[in-house]
Amino acid sequence: MPNVFDYLTWRGDLSLEQAPFNDVDGLIMSSLSYASLAGLVPPEGITLAGAARGYFAGGRPAHPRGEKGGFWDKVDALLWQAGGSVRFGGVRLLDCTARTDREAAEQFAALAADLGAAGGFVSFQGTDDTLVGWKEDFNMAFITPVPAQREAAEYLERWAPRLGNPLRVGGHSKGGNMAVYAAVHASPAVRGRLEAVYNNDGPGFCENALDPAGYRAASGKIRTFLPQNAVVGMLLDHQENYTVVRSTRQGLFQHDLFSWQVEGPDFVRLEEVSGASRFASDALRRWVTGLSVEQRERFVDALFQVLEGPGALTVGELAQGGVRSAAAMLLQLRDMDEETRRALFQVLGALVKAAGRSAWDWISPLRLGGE
Description:
alpha/beta
């Protein structure tokens, strides 16, 4: 099934001037902020081809078609193939920033790119595998803005004057959420230059998170793409319409942008997300809206107190800890004060109940012969 790697094989020999920028190009530019290029972009900028050469000069392996390894191997493969293409190799990176702050619960990464005659692009990275990054995602349920959203708005405002028109901004996962937030809260001068805001399976926003006037001004430029079994992209509140893209994976793994199918210069589009996706979205929305802001905050703090108990900094380290990690997390639960422990289990119980009600809402029409 064709994906972004096949697209680069087919379209990579055509410059952005020869073939107009499209939504698949938007996904590729949104995804390049995942590449670990911080420190490789000098003040005067560097082409993507030059940055890729510098990155792989350290002996990092590349899989030219991205068919081996996990997500980060595929990110390397995308950098390798895009950097070696006519279409993206000449794109000039002006900045690549990456920062993680455990105290502030912030994980932020972004890049600013000059596309030549095709304009400019600001790309925000989605969540990495740090526990800090995941906690910031959870914090979106009760904090507006989280630090990364605020920094995204400042980053767009800072780099937009150095980029040409048309100006585009985008990201995948949390990066898509940050792109929307930055566009909505941009100054009128910057927002007026925006041609498109690419939200690739990014979560929505908690209530009252977006400036109403700014959203009205930017909403017509927001392009949201979700796989058919979307879970992440259906979280919290989405006010904009979205396009459904066919994925070759199942369930939550459809969040993997490398599984999205491409046909020619466009995605393979479907009419709507699956019933399973709507079920999960409904369950999680019931859970979130059924809790007070204080309950959401207590749940997130308690959850990550447990997850950080083994001393792991990343999800990978937590998984590698195996039984040792599990034992450390149980100790964290045991040592919690009774009120906090009760709150944690109450919220988890509320989620189960919400899922049960949602399951009945979706199953009962089928049992009664409905849709």
